[in-house]
């Protein structure tokens, strides 16, 4: 790789041990992917901010970087943690995680991170702009940033994100280069996408086929909402390793099919019709019984609009006594929802609005048995995809209306 004088100085240790280690990580990463140089970044979203991922060793690594004088030189936001700071005990999160999480969060904050602790940084003040080079972790946010915002980022892990935050650089390869951002295959949507769950189902279907390739969708007829696009982004990055999609006439790098493919011919053309949608939905519904005990709304973290829809569904109703309803969101969303009275409505009905964590990044393999949860019911394709394998809970999957009815009735219909 060709480095500038300033980058060479960083690599030689002229700016301290923390920056030197960071530059070593970036150069090794860049060389392994054939990058020719580094590119300047001023925007990092840090994966690895949950102690479920970092554990003791990762926490100590971040603390050591801070002790060596590490200071972030870019804007940095953080992904969800393993802990709801205000009600971790009540919802079954182990105290050891709370203690370790405080250390990790403090270490990031001490170097200059904005501890927003959410997978929707674009809704809490870190909105990427078109063409901006960034170093983001969190797969769902990466897809959203590349596709919906037209920003440029690869899927960064914890160490490479940390290295970018310390140096303001990332290797220039993958989705930083325009020629890697074109579509590979075409999916013609020939069914109605009625809500964010349908968009998630489409993402699950396309991700399974895609692997790492970029799908192009046509036929997304209605103007999708922000929630639709975040559900699609999350699901694509779950069943597949997708980092970007194009929706013709919707996303900024796909005004036409030709532009989405950069003039190339699609490798394959598929249809997502009624039958494909029904089959994908059925594949995410892995619990044969009607038993409901743990319900999750807010993967990716719920927007204020989603919290409002949950509150509306619970007006004058009660969550069934055998059901734990979690709505997971960012602290900033919580504050707005509280101001609007949605939190009170949900809590009065017996639900919980959980901040800064989610079942995937909290220790659900401890929480679920301690609370007696045997299934997970959700409107999120991403959560329905991961719950069986990651924390051993088979899922019911359906749209918000169906999920909220299950919360009230205590059975899945
Ligand atoms: Fe966010 Fe957790 Fe889902 S990090 S995307 S709520 S799995």
Overall description:
Residues 1-403 form the Phosphomevalonate dehydratase large subunit-like domain. It holds the Pfam family AcnX. It comes from Variovorax humicola. This is Aconitase X catalytic domain-containing protein. Keywords: Iron, Lyase. By secondary structure, this protein is an alpha/beta fold. It folds into three domains: 5-178, Aconitase, domain 3, CATH 3.30.499; 182-282, no CATH class; 285-409, 2-Layer Sandwich (Aconitase, domain 3). The chain is built from 16 helices and 14 strands. Strands 12-11-10-13-14 form a five-stranded parallel beta sheet, sandwiched between helices. Strand 6, helix 7 and strand 7 (215-218) form a beta-alpha-beta unit. Helix 2 (17-32) crosses helix 6 (158-167). It is globular. The model has no long low-confidence stretch (mean pLDDT 97). It binds FE3-S4 cluster.
